[in-house]
Specification:
Length: 147
């Protein structure tokens, strides 16, 4: 059912934990399956120098969180926003169709953490970046909710 890479990232997840005084923090969840992901970013000169995650969920949720952190660590903020759920799935060697939503959450958790960083630093966050899964980013909120 799961690839060897998925099992490796599930049993030996990379970058687990929290970052105190993180430059960006993003939390997303999927009420349908109960998975919740929280990403923490440490950013210097617009480059992600450290990233940690805490995920409550299934093995696929943990594996996609772990892989997503590996894919954006050392990248610029703009490069991190280019991460897609498809790239996460490909890096893991595939996921069962019913677990693809975990990769979407991983993408959105990274995006939400970058959005938080942008808010804190006054940097412009690209509108319509979100894929629309979690409903927690600014792309889904009215102007009143964003303030």
């Amino acid at each position: 059912m799961y690839t060897e890479k998925v099992m490796d990232h599930f049993t030996n997840p990379r970058n687990v934990g929290e970052i105190e005084n993180a430059d960006g923090v993003g939390t997303v969840g999927n009420a349908k399956c109960g998975d919740i992901m929280k990403m923490y970013l440490k950013i210097e000169n617009d480059v992600i120098v450290d990233i940690k995650f805490k995920t409550f969920g299934c093995g696929a949720a943990i594996a996609t969180s772990s892989m997503a952190t590996e894919l954006v660590k050392g990248k610029s903020v703009d490069e991190a926003l280019e991460l897609t759920n498809k790239a996460v799935v490909e890096a893991l060697g595939g996921l069962p169709p019913q677990k693809i939503h975990c990769s979407v959450l991983a993408e959105e958790a990274i995006s939400a953490a970058v959005e938080d960083y942008c808010k804190k630093t006054g940097r412009e966050f690209p509108k319509n970046k979100c894929t629309g899964c979690c409903g927690s980013c600014s792309a889904h909120k009215s102007d009143e909710e964003r303030e």
